[in-house]
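All the exercises in this workshop are built on plain-text protein records. Sequence and backbone structure share a record, each on its own labelled line. The question running through the whole workshop is how a given chain folds. The record below serves as our worked example for the rest of this section.
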Amino acid sequence: MKEKENTMTKKKLYLVDTIVTFRHKYVIEANELDHAYDEVTMRESGNDLDNFDEVTQRYLGEVITDGREITKTEFDNLLKDYETNKYETSSYWMGDKLIRKINYDR
């Protein structure tokens, strides 16, 4: 009976931050190793001439870094902020569909 009570209680919203890690390998022709390092750093410059592809990419995992309870109003405000944030890629237009709802009864 206690399990049934748990599913009946009002669920809360939680914002969970994670970091996903990938290992990339590049092959770069340069005069020195430091120049090759600089070339990798410059990939994110925004200049198309600095863009090149990695030889391999390997997923290394996802780590939870933070989490906290939020209100529905805070969630809605986050979506509004993400809509205008040019430094963060988001799916703000999906609205409430972004909320993952745990089904404890399955």
The beta strands are 13-25, 56-70. The chain has a mean pLDDT of 90. The chain has one domain: 2-98. The CA atoms of residues 13 and 99 lie 8 Å apart.
